[in-house]
TrEMBL record:
Gene (UniProt): atpH
Cellular location(s): Cell membrane; Membrane
Keywords, sorted A to Z: ATP synthesis, Cell membrane, CF(1), Hydrogen ion transport, Ion transport, Membrane, Transport
Entry protein name: ATP synthase subunit delta
Family affiliation: Belongs to the ATPase delta chain family.
PANTHER family associated with the record: ATP SYNTHASE DELTA CHAIN
Known role: F(1)F(0) ATP synthase produces ATP from ADP in the presence of a proton or sodium gradient. F-type ATPases consist of two structural domains, F(1) containing the extramembraneous catalytic core and F(0) containing the membrane proton channel, linked together by a central stalk and a peripheral stalk. During catalysis, ATP synthesis in the catalytic domain of F(1) is coupled via a rotary mechanism of the central stalk subunits to proton translocation. This protein is part of the stalk that links CF(0) to CF(1). It either transmits conformational changes from CF(0) to CF(1) or is implicated in proton conduction.
Topology relative to the membrane: Peripheral membrane protein
Endpoints of the signal sequence: none
UniProt GO cellular component terms: plasma membrane; proton-transporting ATP synthase complex
PROSITE patterns, alphabetized: ATPASE_DELTA
One Pfam family in the UniProt entry: OSCP
Amino acid sequence: MSEAVVAKRYAEALFQLGTEKSTLDNLKEEASVLQEVFARNKKILTFLTHPRVKSDKKNQIITEVFQGFSGDMVNTMKLLVERNRVELLPSIVDHFIDLSNEAKGISEATVYSVQALSGDEILKLEQTFAKRFQKKAIKLINKVDPSIIGGIKLRIGNTIYDGSISGKLKRIERSIVTANK
């Protein structure tokens, strides 16, 4: 069975547990923290997946480092240690957050701009695109990308809305090339 399928199954089980216990919002917050922890500190995942470190030591570290987390999240991490599946944790967390957002009608998107957008600009974009996609809300993550020259580019799922100057220039270039053939 592929690792993606296994990660989805663990995420679905955690989602189902959170739904049954009405702790989905809390678990989603913890999952977001885990996502950030693994993105910023690669050493923790290396430690948890290292074959020479005993499971007892890994579980002890999980208990100490994540002591403010719910029992369900900590037990999920310990279960992954026990089954030698800790390397799937970042993928499980990503799938879990997607499931939680989908259940609440929320989508996550990335907006690329030349400079960081203000909170007000992000809020207006979130409202505009939430209506367009018929979602309750859209959570935007702003990434600065000077290569777009100006305007914005928004990626939501597999869809990209390109309102950047560099995108417009590329479209003009393509139309000129196809017109000259």
